[in-house]
Amino acid sequence: MPKQQNRVRLTAGRVDAFACPVGKSQAFLWDTDAPSLALRVSPTGRKTYVFESRLNGQSLRVNIGTATDWPIEKARTRAQELKRLVDAGTDPREIERQQQADKAALKVAASAEALTVGDVWPTYLKQGKPKRRDAWKPGYRADLEAMAAPGGVEKKRGKGLTRPGPLYPLLALPLAGVNEDSLKSWFDSEALKGKHQAARALMMFRGFLRWCSARPEYRKLTDRDAGRAAAIVESLPSSTRRTDALEAAQVPGWWMGVEQLSNRTASVYLRALLLTGARREEMAAMKWADVDFQWRKLTIADKVEATRTIPLTPYLAQLLAALPRVNEFVFASTGKAGRIADTRASHANALQSAAIEALTIHGLRRSFSLLGEAAGAPAGAIAQVMGHKPSATAEGYRPRSVDALRPFLAQIEAHILKLAGVQFDAEAEPGKLALVQAA
Predict the structure, then answer these.
(1) pLDDT tens for residues 307-320?
(2) If both were cysteines, with which of 20, 108, 186, 430 could 321 make a disulfide (CB 3.0 to 4.6 Å apart)?
(3) By percentage, how much of the chain surpasses pLDDT 90?
(4) Cα–Cα distance, 62 to 59 (Å, whole number)
């Protein structure tokens, strides 16, 4: 308890006159009207009102505030409030800590409510990834960026500025505000510009919502099923699965049309797709380091695994060996990427020459599968060459070595060449690679 001579009725004059004695770290002047209230002064002259009492046999002290900010009567009232809490067995410090925690929680909640899709999207691009893979495929990552691009830059082809991507309007929405209604409104607006593009953007955004719902910091803000609401799903365009593929009777015309293309690289590229069943990007990205002429193998970037290795068949080896080595890519181009990018125009010319109405580049992959079956190759071998995800097939999926695959892929190649009317000596050695000196 404070000494009696240190207890007076606090007044403005006494507060102003009170000073810390020399050599002391602090001094107290206790109030007679509110016995638990004291004025504390430091050697620097800072004066603070404090409350002091005992709770459960332990001394308890709480800072009320500075004498500058707290008038004496207000400080007395606060000291009396604290005394009533202590007399009731309540620790006012715990109340203060809880209040601070509640304020912090409210601040965090308010900050979270203000978090927009655009705030989270860059993190998704950096940390998000598809199932069973360590990172985005470069092509899909580029599509994600394009879908959310603000537009307004010069077009690479044609004149004018690019338009905002379909997902761009969603970036301004609070993440907590993405629900069935907001997505339906967005989708209806984007569908007016192109239903299929809007549908693809929606599929991408669903992936974003799934990723957010799996992250503790975003889970409570995310309505994972917003993009699957009936009102939205009913508006999606029908997803008719493409089944385009070359018929056996069309192979000669298609082959001749492709062989006569003025762009030799595109000509070899398109035939390589038919002879291997590879995806267009897998083949386009292939480098000379991936081609083993000695042991007749190709290493291809794979959609499911990192890479897959398949046999290099005799005729395809001849085609590749005849290509010039301009840079590291087998199917080189003078474009920015340094490799072939889009052969749809060349393919359209070949189709026109062959009087084939419609066949997509991906249709060549389906054609390989169907022609492989017609050649008598096992379904599992065809699937492995194409890089299909292992699954049960008619024969049961059994991974084979490259040498075990070799006769089956050679069998498919021979069948396609026979249909195309190509005379080829499978025992001939591949020609030497032509080297093009850089200008």
Answers:
(1) 899 999 999 999 99
(2) 430
(3) 63
(4) 10
* Helix (H) / strand (E) containing 29: strand 27-31
The per-residue pLDDT for 314 is: 95
pLDDT digits (tens, 9 = 90+) for 81-121: 999 999 999 998 898 888 888 777 777 666 656 789 999 99
Instruction: Choose among 265, 360, 278: nearest CA to 312.
Output: 278
- Grouping H, G, I as helix, E, B as strand and the rest as coil, residue 111 is helix
Phi, psi of 401 (to 5 degrees): -70, 165
Q: Which two tokens stand for residue 220?
A: 């409570």
Which residue, chain included where needed, has tokens 């991507």? 165
Sequence-ordered list of residues with C-beta below 8 angstroms from that of 55, at least 6 positions apart, any chain = 86, 89, 91
Return d(Cα 74, Cα 84) in angstroms, integer.
16
Got the DSSP string for 274-319?
Answer: HHH---HHHHHT-BGGGEETTTTEEEEE-SSSSEEEEE--HHHHHH
The size of the chain, in residues, is 439
- Residue linked to tokens 């081609």: 291
pLDDT at 269 over 80: yes
Neighbours of 375 (CB within 10 A): 19
Rg for the chain, CA atoms, rounded? 38
Rounded Cα–Cα distance for residues 284 and 287 (Å): 9
Distances (CA, A) of 52 to 1, 30, 181: 9, 10, 57
